[in-house]
Specification:
Strand content: 15-25%
Structural class: alpha/beta
Strand order of the largest sheet: 3-2-4-7-1-8-11-10-9
CATH superfamily of one domain: Thiolase/Chalcone synthase
CATH architecture of one domain: 3-Layer(aba) Sandwich
Low-confidence stretches: none
Largest sheet: 9 strands, mixed
Mean pLDDT: 97
Number of strands: 11
Number of helices: 13
Helix content: 25-40%
CATH class of one domain: Alpha Beta
């Protein structure tokens, strides 16, 4: 396999984009990535589009051809890739395989979602399609409810109270305040966290990420063509049971552990080598469980990393450096590529007010469903 580099990145703000359609959002991010890479559309050989809900919420499928046409890529290989909230991470994985295998030399990967022009019930119903329709969705369960059950069990097993999770939200909002693309750009206090209304006990307003409209994109090339570009050192996807109740231990994300182990092995690194972790903090409990299953904390100690300040921008392992899902927003099929754009900007030293110092290796992790599909990527600069 050839080593793959990220030559260009692009993104839109996460917001309620009333004046932009699904195809326009995707094209904006794609054009920005092409401009950043200094390439023309005619040079792109393949386009892979990550998306989850376009069929349900936008009455639009066949996104590969749609976005290719909008970008002027007619004739290029193009297709949509879906893995629930992990769609964007899975899309990058396919782009890496295309370039790494030698089949393609220039691949554009785009994640896009438009979720705010439908009523809340329709959006919730579309999202729950990522759960087990027969044994979870049929009973009216939502992803907030599923994560609330997991969080309650975790609290029971490890003796935590709700306020113990506050540092995850406080950190995300503090960092989102430095990101002009974030949907929420105001920090919050512990008191604000405590006043947040309960959504599904014990998950409150500040434990859950907001949906939004947005698109993010990466332009991939063989590393030999871009010797100064950020490189993808590790890439892996693993799966777990779709239904939470089918797992032997609901407080352990086995797909996180497996994908992280494979990515570490490819990159030749360990958790101790990672300088930045852009994790999938769709819910506070997912942040804690991801830290544990990725090897950064022992079982039951993920929350302690937050309480001890390890995850903050001045800590040993910063997470959500530009707001994460909680503050930047969670346009589900695009989220994994937002993480990768942000990690790339950090490694380039171009993250603006959110820039962290001394970064060498960054890891991103994109989760589909309640841990059923997990894509982990490790990025690094040329030394």
């Amino acid at each position: 396999m050839r080593e793959v580099a990220i030559l260009g990145v692009g993104q839109t703000a996460v917001a309620e984009h009333w004046s932009l359609s699904l195809r326009q959002l995707a094209a904006q991010a794609g054009r920005a990535a092409l401009h950043d890479a200094g390439l023309e559309p005619a040079q792109v050989q393949a386009l892979y589009v990550g998306n989850m809900t376009s069929g349900s919420l936008n009455a639009q499928q066949h996104l590969g051809a749609l976005v290719a046409s909008e970008l002027g890529l007619e004739g290029a290989e193009a297709m949509r890739i879906e893995a629930a909230c992990g769609s964007a991470g899975a899309t990058l994985r396919q782009g890496i395989l295309a370039v790494g295998s030698g089949q393609m030399d220039t691949v554009l990967v785009v994640g896009v979602e438009k979720m705010t022009e439908t009523v809340k019930g329709d959006t919730t119903a579309a999202l729950v399609q990522a759960a087990d329709a027969d044994f979870e969705g049929a009973h009216g369960v939502t992803f907030v409810a599923l994560n609330a059950l997991i969080m309650r069990r975790y609290m029971l097993e490890h003796g935590y109270q709700h306020d113990d999770f506050a540092p995850f939200a406080i950190n995300a909002h503090a960092n989102g305040a430095k990101n002009p693309h974030a949907i929420f750009q105001e920090p919050i206090t512990l008191k604000a966290y405590q006043r947040g209304r309960m959504v599904a006990d014990p998950i409150s307003l500040y434990d859950a990420s907001p949906i939004g409209d947005g698109a993010a994109a990466l332009l991939l090339v063989p590393a030999e063509r871009a010797p100064e570009a950020v490189r993808i050192l590790g890439s892996a996807i693993a799966t777990d049971t779709l239904a939470v109740h089918d797992r032997t231990d609901v407080t352990w994300l086995s797909a996180v552990a497996k994908s992280a182990e494979r990515a570490y092995a490819q990159a030749g690194v360990s958790p101790a080598d990672i300088d930045l972790f852009e994790l999938h903090d769709a819910f506070s409990i997912m942040a804690a469980l991801s830290l544990e299953a990725s090897g950064f904390a022992e079982r039951g100690r993920g929350v302690r990393l937050a309480q001890d300040g390890v995850i903050f921008s001045n800590g040993r392992l910063p997470i959500a450096s530009m707001g994460g899902l909680k503050s930047r927003g969670h346009p589900v099929g695009a989220t994994g590529l937002y993480q990768l754009v942000e990690a790339t900007l950090q490694l380039r030293g171009r993250a603006g007010a959110a820039q962290l110092d001394g970064l060498r290796l960054a890891m991103t992790q994109n989760i589909g469903g309640s841990g059923a599909t997990v894509a982990t990527h490790i990025l690094g600069n040329v030394q």
